[in-house]
Amino acid sequence: MSNFQHRVLEEENGLRIDKVLSTLNEEWSRTQVQQWIKESHVLVNSSAVKTNYKCSTGDEIELVIPEPEDLDVEAEEMNLDIYYEDGDVLVVNKPSGMVVHPAPGHTSGTLVNGLMAHCKDLSGINGVMRPGIVHRIDKDTSGLLMVAKNDMAHESLVQQLVDKTVTRKYRAIVHGVIPHDYGTIDAPIGRDKKDRQSMTVTEENAKNAVTHFRVLERFENFSFVECQLETGRTHQIRVHMKYIGFPLAGDPKYGPRKTLDIDGQALHAGVLGFIHPRTKEYLEFEAPLPQEFEDLLDKLRHKR
């Protein structure tokens, strides 16, 4: 089980409890939240409430998320693009359009379903829904992920993320022509008060976030960039590039409506490097851009 706490904000005053909770995490459907409330997994000011409870500013909401049953997630045979595998870790290249792990009401077709069929030994630290998952990338982002096959490996890889020793480089196409070759964006990221399913640069309830970038190529109205993560916040590159005025092409959440013809943001996790939990050897892997991404670059070069 995991605990989630939230203090009701002024703009949430008068809203139903199920609506407030369902907007705090894009993986929580309103139906799922209502079920948790009925099962008394949700407390307001230490007391159980009904689904139609109207929140008041300052209410302390506590949600105890129950562990799903083992049967919720089934192994599915998939043609996974495995870059490395041994008894401790696995590196996989995730295609754009694939969700990393199951969520309530969405328990099939994810990377985790495929991993469960590929190998029977995945770390159990993150529970049944996220076995072996140390970090994740968004559904429409392609690229490399490291997966832990036991708890020792999981703890080591998570600590490396905390210590900022993992190499994570992304390639992206952004709107606008960035005038300088290099830059660092150091701006805290938290949940957007106006849209609780989005993240934004803010000082309120935020975590520090740092992204380094360099321009690889410039086009008429776009730039091709490499972004290196120092921290790993939700939607970090997408939020940071929007913040400096160069949102990702194709980004349905943070980008302009008029954009390139692509399904989802043009973002690829191309380079991943980490210290092997057992051998202590530094390993680094690189995955080429997906064909759709290459085709976009060719079109932009042709226009130029």
Structure described in brief:
The protein is α+β, with helices and mostly antiparallel strands and 304 residues long. The protein has helices spanning 17-22, 30-38, 111-118, 151-162, 236-243, 291-303, and strands at residues 2-7, 42-44, 47-48, 60-65, 81-85, 89-94, 142-148, 167-175, 182-186, 189-191, 199-201, 210-218, 222-229, 267-275, 282-286.
Distance between the termini: 54 Å
Largest sheet: 9 strands, mixed
CATH topology grouping of the largest domain: Pseudouridine synthase
Number of structurally distinct domains: 3
The CATH architecture assignment of the largest domain turns out to be 2-Layer Sandwich
Question: Based on DSSP secondary structure assignment, what is the total number of beta strands?
Answer: 15
Average residue pLDDT: 91
Uncertain spans, ≥5 residues at pLDDT below 50? none
Structural class per helix/strand content? alpha+beta
Question: What sort of overall outline do the alpha carbons produce when their principal axes are compared?
Answer: globular
* CATH class type of the largest domain: Alpha Beta
Please identify which CATH superfamily of the largest domain we are dealing with. Pseudouridine synthase
